[in-house]
């Protein structure tokens, strides 16, 4: 209220007293940033300093930003899903070359108590790196891969500056998806570029009404202020226009888990020709309540996207995608050298290229099963590529990624 009143007074001074416009703009921006920080950073029960410089606030589960959403004002938190998908994942205990499980760096200095959730504290500098307070924590439009378009598509690369190497299924009703993804630290050329590896749960057309639920790992200097590899989620119900955001940076996703922080750094990471480390992510729709749940690993049910957030996904998904995405800003007139995955092409194989393994979908009977008729898609396979396969413990899998700029990708 104080911040709002301050903004009104400032606007009055600017208009009536003809204060220097630049000073007015700066002052109003400071007030907006202050207000946004106060909204995002709720009073913690405990705060934990992470070795990477993050501060993790343990806030009461009922105080999280989700409940600011107009459709969730009277929402009763569902503390566990009514149903898990049937069919246990295979091979999860046989992760090649792993010496210890994936954790998050902040765990070295403490844990959040029961009844709270860990939230990465947003800093003033995080918001100031974006073009505006309104755009903080949001993807730009046209950032989704559009395989096999119904009509000829304009040049996606120049249209959005995003490039992909993905595997996908379409043509059925899907009620979730699963994958195990190895984690890397791809090099990013420009601070405004990112590299991520994720699943997309998509509903609707690729127009202005696309519904999307996304989860995976990412390196994004613009969003986080460093080059750490971090667990993330995203959602939108209008093709990234006004709704949705990363992690808990707006109302929407309801977290119930006290152990894992969205947006926090993952450790350890895979090394080239050395140990490989991976994470497992499952997203599925609760057949009873209609909420979309997320599980991290075998033990951590993270929370859910409530059904009222969506239009098409209130029924089912019409496409599932797995794979990598980078921003190619062509800042120096050449293709970016931002890496996707490990930064190596799929043909290099295990220990060198990035992989998704045990990729599965959840069908109408709430059963996990192998996807049928997998398609692949990439805008420029000389920059980033994808190769699929199927074998034993790995089930359906694919290698993907690449270095970006190279002699064949100028």
Automatic annotation (TrEMBL):
<dbReference type="InterPro" id="IPR004314">
    <property type="entry name" value="Neprosin"/>
</dbReference>
<keyword id="KW-0732">Signal</keyword>
<feature type="signal peptide">
    <location>
        <begin position="1"/>
        <end position="25"/>
    </location>
</feature>
<dbReference type="Pfam" id="PF14365">
    <property type="entry name" value="Neprosin_AP"/>
</dbReference>
<protein>
    <recommendedName>
        <fullName>Neprosin PEP catalytic domain-containing protein</fullName>
    </recommendedName>
</protein>
<dbReference type="InterPro" id="IPR025521">
    <property type="entry name" value="Neprosin_propep"/>
</dbReference>
<feature type="domain" description="Neprosin PEP catalytic">
    <location>
        <begin position="156"/>
        <end position="410"/>
    </location>
</feature>
<dbReference type="InterPro" id="IPR053168">
    <property type="entry name" value="Glutamic_endopeptidase"/>
</dbReference>
<dbReference type="Pfam" id="PF03080">
    <property type="entry name" value="Neprosin"/>
</dbReference>
């Amino acid at each position: 209220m104080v911040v709002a009143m301050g903004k009104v007074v400032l606007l009055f001074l600017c208009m009536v007293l003809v204060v220097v416009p630049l000073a007015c703009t700066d002052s109003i921006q400071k007030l907006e940033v202050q207000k946004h920080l106060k909204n995002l950073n709720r009073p913690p029960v405990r705060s934990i300093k992470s070795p990477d410089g993050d501060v993790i606030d343990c806030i009461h589960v009922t105080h999280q930003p989700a409940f600011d959403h107009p459709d969730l004002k009277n929402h009763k938190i569902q503390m566990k899903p009514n149903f898990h998908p049937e069919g246990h994942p295979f091979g999860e205990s046989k992760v090649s070359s792993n010496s210890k499980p994936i954790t998050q760096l902040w765990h070295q200095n403490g844990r959040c108590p029961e009844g709270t959730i860990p939230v990465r504290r947003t800093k003033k500098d995080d918001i100031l790196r974006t073009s505006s307070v309104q755009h903080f924590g949001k993807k730009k439009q046209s950032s989704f891969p559009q395989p096999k378009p119904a009509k000829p598509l304009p040049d996606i690369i120049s249209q959005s500056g995003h490039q992909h190497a993905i595997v996908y299924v379409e043509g059925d009703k899907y009620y979730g998806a699963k994958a195990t993804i190895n984690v890397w630290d791809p090099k990013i050329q420009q601070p405004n570029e990112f590299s991520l590896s994720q699943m997309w749960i998509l509903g609707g057309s690729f127009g202005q009404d696309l519904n999307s639920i996304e989860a995976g790992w990412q390196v994004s200097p613009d969003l986080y202020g460093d080059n750490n590899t971090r667990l993330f989620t995203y959602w939108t119900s209008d093709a990234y226009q006004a709704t949705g955001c990363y992690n808990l940076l707006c109302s929407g996703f309801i977290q119930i888990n006290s152990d894992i922080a969205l947006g926090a750094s993952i450790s350890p990471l895979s090394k080239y020709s050395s140990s490989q480390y991976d994470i497992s992510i499952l997203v599925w729709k609760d057949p009873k309540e209609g909420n979309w749940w997320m599980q991290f690993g075998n033990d951590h049910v993270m929370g859910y996207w409530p059904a009222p957030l969506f239009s098409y996904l209130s029924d089912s998904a019409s496409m599932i995608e797995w794979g990598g995405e980078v921003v190619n800003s062509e800042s120096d007139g050449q293709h970016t050298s931002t890496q996707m995955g490990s930064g190596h092409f799929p043909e290099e194989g295990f220990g060198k290229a990035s992989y998704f393994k045990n990729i599965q979908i959840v069908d109408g009977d709430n059963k996990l099963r192998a996807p049928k008729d997998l398609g692949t898609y990439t805008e420029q396979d000389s920059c980033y590529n994808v190769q699929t396969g199927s074998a034993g413990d790995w089930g359906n899998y694919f290698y993907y990624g690449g270095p970006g700029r190279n002699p064949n990708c100028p």
